[in-house]
């Protein structure tokens, strides 16, 4: 185990002056300094707008500056004074724009007018909104609904998402893939089976009552930084934080609060992790099995010495099933296997477990390091197994805490964005709107792209996102995307997925929710669900980026109206005039959670969704919380056992990106400058291969499907990462990730463990 406070080689803590400077830099770069700074004061406040970056909870009593470096960058990115209008597109052909870097495409500015691709000139040209809607409607009516996919990236509001799913279903399909399919779907599937709820059970108040937290595969310092405030408060109460992560992430080591004058003026900082375990990529199931083994062994000793039990036997007996099978599995699994697969020493795992046996209330936070694996669902269930052993769910200060990604990704699923018919209240929708919703299962992300490669998809309607960059197997999906008949993009900025387009392609520019959205009934409000299941209102505060752009709800309404015509039973225009009418309908569909939606919209801290597992009511098959016996200790069955030089590649985000949006080429926290085409590697692995820092390498995926997957021009950076594991950036490494390399039950691509080999090295000169 590493002593986190001896990380002298890491000069960076998250927050602090570096963070303040980084915020000032991006505000200046986007030429929005003054405007940006005042806008930030409205971020995550009652009556203001919900940050467009992460989905972390918004407290009832926010800080004056309830934003972070990442959130400020996202705000600056949207409130930029740069614009790309029709004149820009007249100057650049699509072929030319395709030579631009992803960063430069979005950095060019906000889109100002609806555009249609013109094949003759190879340019996007301005089109009127009506013409665009008419044509898209006519195209969709001519297609089979099974051949159309309606994609949602996780940013759009509850109102827009509700309208979008209703549009898709009235049109005739459950093809509603969303970003969650690449993200926390392993949680939705795993937690549903284990506790009968697809979302986490903790709320902000639990931070005040917990006395131990674990972190598995989540990089709080860059991806949910506002949470550092709650972690800092907990650390002040001496709550230990035990982290499992293959990389030493500065944001998980220490934090300087940019809002605390004493921390800013002195070198003081809060130590975040009290134990830091650098396990192997894909070693989490093994590590948790090891912890469970240590807990059960401690219970055996307690029985032997007539001491109070370590296991919560009353909880296990009353509330769970499957404990005996699980305990048997844990007892028979050897420490040798656990140590080999996790890459951790038994003593270290026992130290992590020792904290667990002492604590009365435990939270387990986790992110993509658990979910984006072949056995990602199993990982989630292992988190539950650990929590069940001491009844750490359904009581204050305890529970699973999947930290969600996009700012409304959880909410979109709550209001019906799902390809799984059983998760949508189809009978209610049928009655409420007087139509017969499709009952056939729709396609998720992996299935959509499998079908696209087979030529079975005609159109994709994108509510945000950048799929040709975010999905696996780029070199196979780009040609398939190009062969689509129609691509429609509702978007704020230009990205690659608009340039690699279908035969017909539209760019429909929308407002960012930071902007004032005025409709017939006045200025509108939208809403989101945060990572802890609380719903918040959000109202724009700046002028729209251009007069010619429209709000997301109004674009979705117009698409629905023009496509469905007389088949529609909804007055889309009225909804578009007044979004509170949409909220009334959401309240009718899910009255338990959304009753009095409009009245409760501005509840400080948000109003919570109904969450039976929080009350120890288990909506599972057995009616109990279900223990689970792992299929295997290793998370990646595709990892070749016979190739000694095989490496496990995990793909990461930097502190200067939001998914496929690249703000800058640096990764300040990890000390990487000016390039994202890098591979982080253990120095011993480098020496064994006679490689040095700065050498250029290429990687190839190890797979026997006959497809060549290769990424070259990658520069080696020595890094504190376990041997046999390497790390590179998402989305640059996505050509290496096979589409079929996904979690079995959730189909989340295994982006955190890709089997690769090094195929060439050029020495640094
Ligand atoms: N600023 C910013 N904020 C964001 C985003 C962004 O791109 N930028 N993206 C948003 C979205 S959509 C999401 S889903 C979240 C993502 O947020 P996270 O869940 O934090 O996702 P990642 O950054 O991909 O990786 C998380 C961590 O997993 C570790 N890891 C890699 N492999 C393994 C493994 O096998 N086991 C374990 N235990 N750890 C591993 C990595 O070292 C990294 O620290 O953040 C959201 N917030
Ligand atoms: N290798 C690898 N691949 C991954 C991951 C990984 O860790 N590793 N992570 C996966 C995860 S967790 C996720 S969530 C996906 C993300 O995948 P996507 O949802 O496809 O991608 P984003 O980068 O979030 O989408 C960015 C685009 O959304 C548009 N946009 C921004 N703001 C708005 C808005 O307000 N409204 C509208 N309509 N559009 C807007 C802009 O055009 C911007 O270019 O990627 C996945 N892919
Ligand atoms: Mo995500």
Automatic annotation (TrEMBL):
Gene3D superfamilies, A to Z: 3.40.50.740, Dimethylsulfoxide Reductase, domain 2
Cofactor: [4Fe-4S] cluster; Mo-bis(molybdopterin guanine dinucleotide)
Family: Belongs to the prokaryotic molybdopterin-containing oxidoreductase family.
Organism taxonomic ancestry: Bacteria, Pseudomonadati, Pseudomonadota, Betaproteobacteria, Burkholderiales
GO molecular function, one term: 4 iron, 4 sulfur cluster binding
SUPFAM superfamilies for this protein: ADC-like, Formate dehydrogenase/DMSO reductase, domains 1-3
Start and end residues of each Molybdopterin oxidoreductase domain: 110-492
Keyword Iron-sulfur on entry: yes
Domain of life: Bacteria
InterPro entries, sorted: Asp_de-COase-like_dom_sf, MopB_CT_YdeP, Mopterin_OxRdtase, Mopterin_OxRdtse_a_bac, Prok_molybdopt-oxidoreductase, YdeP_MopB
GO terms for cellular component: membrane
Keyword annotations: 4Fe-4S, Iron, Iron-sulfur, Metal-binding, Molybdenum, Oxidoreductase
The name this protein goes by in its record: Oxidoreductase alpha (Molybdopterin) subunit
UniProt source species: Caballeronia insecticola
